[in-house]
Amino acid sequence: MLKKIGIMQGRLLPKYKGRYQAHPLGYWEKEFPIASELGLDSIEFILDFNDAEQNPLLATGGIESIKSVEQSSGVKVFSICADYFMEAPIHSDDTFTVDKSISVLERLIKNASLMNVKDIVIPCIDQSSLKNTRNKNNFINNIKQVTSIAEETNINISLETDLAPTPFANLIDSIGSKNVTINYDIGNSAALGFNPLEEFNAYGDKISDLHIKDRLLGKGPVPLGEGNANIPKIFELLLKIDYQGIIIFQAYRDDEGIEIFKKQLNWFFKNIKL
Fold first, then answer.
1. Cβ contacts of residue 135 below 8 Å, gap of 6+?
2. In DSSP terms, which residues pair with 246 in a beta bridge?
3. CATH code: domain of residue 38
4. pLDDT band at residue 3, thresholds of 50, 70 and 90?
5. Is the pTM of this model over 0.90?
6. How far from each other are the two terminal CA atoms of the chain, in whole angstroms?
7. Does the structure show a pLDDT above 60 at 1?
C-alpha cells in the first residue's frame, strides 16, 4: 500500500466561521507548512457552495496560487472534496440547479487537470442523499454528462453515499465509467452500521479515496479509537486488495484542530500497519 497520507482541508487550522468543515477562505495557505511539519503528503481541498467563486479552485489565478504553496511546502493537492454538491445536488429536481452544478463540475474537472489531482469526491449524503429511485436515476443520467471529461483528464469522480453495499455497487455499475469510483468513509459506514467485509466484497476494487474517521453507531464523530469503526480491520481489508489510492484524515476536530489531530495521528500509527 502506498503511504500517501493527507488531511482534509482546515483540520489543522481554527474553524472557519465556526463551521466543522469548510474551506478556510483567506488563510488556507497557512495549513500547508503545518501539514509538512507533521509529515503529511497532501491536503484534500474543499469546494464549498458558499463563496465558491472565491475558492482558488475556481477563482482566476487560483490554481497558480495553489501550485505556489505546494512548491514551497512540498505538500500536494491530490484530491478535492466537493461539498458544493451537497447544497446543489446533481440529482436535484430543479433544472436550473442541475445545469449550474454540471457546469461547476466541468470547470472543476478541467481546473483539477491542471494540477496533480486524482480524485474529486462528490458526497451524496445528508441533504444530498440518494433517497429514492428518482434521485438515483436523476444522478445516473446527469453524472453521465461529465464522465467523458473525467475519462479524458484521467480524474476520478469518487462518490460517497449512504447506500448499502449492493445498491452502491449497482449505482456505480449503472453509470458505467471506469473513472466513477468510490470514496470510502470509515466513520460514516460505522455510523450506518454497515459490515466492512460486505462493503469490500461489493465494491472494494472501486475505492480510490479513503476518509479516516470514527463515529458511534447512529451518532456523530469521536476521536479515533473511541467509536464503532474497526479501523485496524479496515486496513487489513485494504492491504488484501493492495489499495493504492489516497488516504485522508477527516478525523474528529475541536475549535483549533491541531493538537487533537496530533493525538489521533499518534493513535493511528500505534494501531495501524501500512
1. 91, 129
2. 209
3. 3.20.20.150
4. low
5. yes
6. 6
7. no
